[in-house]
TrEMBL record:
Cofactor binding note from Swiss-Prot or TrEMBL: Binds 1 potassium ion per subunit.
UniProt-annotated binding residues for (6S)-NADPHX: 141-145, 210-216, 249
Membrane spanning residue stretches: none
Protein name: NAD(P)H-hydrate epimerase
Lineage, top ranks: Eukaryota, Viridiplantae, Streptophyta, Embryophyta, Tracheophyta
UniProt organism field: Medicago truncatula
PANTHER family: PYRIDOXINE-5'-PHOSPHATE OXIDASE (PTHR10851:SF0), PYRIDOXINE-5-PHOSPHATE OXIDASE (PTHR10851)
Length: 541
């Protein structure tokens, strides 16, 4: 019998169920059901199927993959008014269902919640500027989420510290503490905390109380909440930079439905809602509201009529509402990098480039071989585009393209160009200027046939930089050639396609530094006794 794969996205975990595939349109014709007509009767359903009573599973023809979604809205439509907000009892019921009929465990839910918190923080507050993180954890599940988040933040490049005043003796929480201690993440007592958080921390994570908390906070959390509030108020008055405050699910001191009723709760810069926003989040006025994790199974979304934003790609978090309006002139990064000094560099700039390129590879940066190629045609107008470096050695830097493209025409008119590499994760740039020539036909042929066959066909189809009536034309031509060469025969390289080599006559290596005092070391050629040598010069930033 064919089987139906049903993927359920749980509150803090995804799961896949394999069920016999039964067409909802032809259920009476199934031989297995004729002999066992009670297959799906209530009395015979396993617990997880009983939970789905009244919910239609819609098979996708061909793949037998079924996903139940909470809404057909696109991401751009999800402002804060479009999202469903949960009342306290609803949030409790959903958690009970996840850990009951759906079979989730507390540690699974906590792990995904903490990861969601850490990824949300990384979306806005990068470790280059906000590295010092203090996470204050309460005694319950919210505190456990904070402990998990601290571990992930460590792996993301932050320097977390944890304050966990009321430790829970349960093995789950003791294990989380052991994991942090194994990473040498410091634990601070309330007495060890500095009097002024702003001097020692860039981010304060409020993981003290979640949606199930009732009553007034007791010591030492009442005093900690007050210190959060005082920190914000004092710095608002004197205009100094203060640590940003991130609250997990509920800002501590808030009522889960009514919000900051008495004005005695934490006013956060970021709120990370888990499962779905709680009712109090309607009154959140901070600049960053995120929904954390892909926790909600379709059945729960249907049962509670949840409307939630879709998660992009593989992300564990998604923004709710529009990002705050940003003053572009205020956007700046205060780079923190090792010094880049003259006595540290290689005498040959190609060797220095190789060292930095290897660093970019080791850092797993995306497409470290991407470079901006700038050309100027006979009209004197510059143009730039991103191309991919395909090789470099003592003779120069090589890339491949269509010779009849805009850049190809510009290089035929003016064979001087500049290439620029930017490696954001390392705060580095390399600029190279030089003279450009075509590589040999043999080199172009060799590289062309090393490419995937799809890319070879694409190079024939694309008359680069020319106007096409529509994308469908490219697809039609591609399909024709794909069928033509379906027998595996050699695909001929177009005569107008090949490589270029830039022979350098200038290098500049740039390393970002604090207060815009960047390191800029330039290599320029000069002759010594008739031999070409490179001279290293420092340029003003």
């Amino acid at each position: 019998m064919r089987s139906l794969m049903v993927q359920l996205y749980g509150r803090r975990r995804s799961m896949i169920l394999t069920l016999p595939f039964i067409s909802p349109y032809n259920i009476t014709n199934s031989p297995s059901l004729i002999h066992n007509h009670n297959y799906f009767s209530t009395n015979h359903k396993p617990p997880f199927l009983q939970f789905f009573s009244g919910i239609l599973l819609r098979p996708t023809i061909g793949s037998f993959s079924t996903t139940i979604t909470s809404s057909s809205k696109t991401m751009s439509n999800f402002d804060s008014d479009s999202v469903t907000y949960l009342k306290q009892q609803e949030a409790v019921e959903i958690d009970e269902t996840l850990m009951g009929p759906l079979g989730f465990s507390v540690d699974q839910l906590m792990e995904l919640a903490g990861l969601s918190v850490a990824t949300s923080i990384y979306e806005v507050y990068k470790p280059g500027e906000y590295s010092r993180v203090l996470t204050i954890c309460g005694p319950g599940n919210n505190g456990g989420d904070g402990l998990v988040a601290a571990r992930h933040l460590h792996h993301f490049g932050y320097k977390p510290l944890v304050c966990y005043p009321k430790r829970t003796p349960k093995p789950l929480y003791a294990g989380l503490v052991t994991q942090l201690e194994a990473l040498s993440i410091p634990f601070l007592s309330v007495e060890d905390l500095p009097s002024d958080f702003s001097k020692d921390f860039d981010i304060l994570v409020d993981a003290m109380f979640g949606f199930s908390f009732h009553g007034s906070p007791r010591p030492p959390f009442d005093d900690l909440i007050q210190r959060f509030i005082s920190l914000r108020n004092n710095h608002n008055q004197i205009g100094q930079k203060r640590p940003v405050i991130v609250s997990v699910d509920i800002p501590s001191g808030w009522h889960v439905e009514e919000g900051d009723v008495n004005g005695t709760g934490i006013k956060s810069d970021m709120l990370i809602s888990l499962t779905a926003p709680k009712f109090c989040a309607k009154k959140f006025r901070g600049p960053h509201h995120f929904l954390g994790g892909r926790f909600v199974p379709p059945a729960i979304a249907e049962k509670y009529k949840l409307i939630l934003p879709p998660y992009p790609g593989t992300s564990m978090c998604v923004r709710i509402g529009k990002p705050p309006q940003i003053d572009i002139s205020a956007l700046r990064e205060n780079y923190i990098s090792p010094e880049f000094l003259e006595d540290q560099v290689e005498a040959d700039p190609i060797n220095q480039f190789r060292k930095w390129f290897d660093d970019a590879l080791a850092a797993s940066l995306k497409e470290p071989n991407a470079m901006a190629l700038s050309t100027v045609g006979k009209d004197g107008k510059p143009s730039s585009r991103i191309v991919l470096l395909k090789g470099f050695d003592k003779d120069g830097f090589v890339w491949f393209t269509n010779y009849e493209s805009q850049k190809g025409r510009a290089l035929s008119e003016n064979p001087h160009a500049s290439i620029l590499f930017y490696w954001d994760g390392l705060n580095r740039q390399v600029r190279v200027e030089g003279y450009v020539q075509k590589v040999s036909d043999e080199e172009s042929e060799q590289y062309f046939h090393s490419r995937p066959r799809g890319s070879q066909i694409g190079a024939i189809v694309s008359k680069q930089s020319t106007v096409v009536p529509g994308r469908h034309v490219l697809h039609e031509q591609y399909k024709e050639l794909e069928q033509k060469y379906a027998d595996g025969s050699v695909i001929p390289k177009p005569k107008n396609w090949g490589g270029y080599r830039l022979t350098p006559n200038l290098f500049e290596f740039w390393q970002g530094q604090k207060s815009r005092l960047h390191d800029r070391l330039q290599y320029v050629p000069h002759d010594i006794d008739g031999k070409k040598q490179w001279k290293v010069e420092r340029l003003a930033p």
